[in-house]
Amino acid sequence: MSKARTSLARTGAVHFALIAYTLIALFPVFLTIANSFKSRNAIFREPLAIPTPETFSLIGYQTVLKQGDFIGYFQNSVIVTVVSIALVLLFGAMAAFALSEYRFRGNTLMGLYLALGIMIPIRLGTVAILQGMVASNLVNTLTALILVYTAQGLPLAVFILSEFMRTVSDDLKNAGRIDGLSEYAIFFRLVLPLVRPAMATVAVFTMIPIWNDLWFPLILAPAEPTKTITLGSQIFIGQFVTNWNAVLSALSLAIFPVLVLYVIFSRQLIRGITAGAVK
């Protein structure tokens, strides 16, 4: 009986801590989005209140869409993020399959070499990356950002996916070979469907740093046609630092896609994390 009470108390304490952390993490997001739909006077008068018919206002979003090309910034961010994630998942999964399935000389060293990419920040090579992009005439192009983000996301993708692919049954893959499937067919038709939770986990962990990054867009693609939404929001906030309606609206537009992605992939993300912890 005492063990059951102790276990119940521990479970309650863990849930209380998680709920408290969730509220603390979501409170700034809620405050930002709620105040973006309020008039300026209402923001200062009642910053913690939700919008009412008397305080509701879209002036901030109208200012953002009128003064800045946020539709273009959003489009650039979507293109860079989606293409980068697709390349990271494709090449990362193929590399993870090769490292986990085949035994060859240098297999372990190759895995350790890729793991170094997790420990060493890619920003340390900014000067060399910029020189390479200038030599390749890729400055102020979305291609430059896609290449950098793909290289940035591959080490973590290979590390996570290789651990999951080692758990795929060898009997299943050998049965596919006996049936005449090629290695590519085994990879795409048998292995990938079984590691979808891990793929979703990699996609989310890859997407957030890309979407929120300010460093490389500022260095590699600062031109107006290639600005991402994070860079555009930062410049916009600097220009309208006293216009809180516009500032909060710009921030809301920047964080909205991340929230939508998490809502869509939250179940698979949690499954991938918990499965990796169990394994």
From TrEMBL:
It is a multi-pass membrane protein. It is found in: Cell membrane. It comes from the Bacteria. Keywords: Cell membrane, Membrane, Transmembrane, Transmembrane helix, Transport. Gene3D superfamilies: MetI-like. Pfam families: BPD_transp_1 (PF00528). SUPFAM superfamilies: MetI-like. The keyword Metal-binding does not apply. The chain crosses the membrane at residues 12-34, 78-99, 111-130, 142-165, 186-211, 246-265. Residues 74-265 form the ABC transmembrane type-1 domain. CDD domains: TM_PBP2 (cd06261). The keyword DNA-binding does not apply. Belongs to the binding-protein-dependent transport system permease family. This is Raffinose/stachyose/melibiose transport system permease protein. It comes from Sinorhizobium kostiense. The lineage of its organism: Bacteria, Pseudomonadati, Pseudomonadota, Alphaproteobacteria, Hyphomicrobiales.
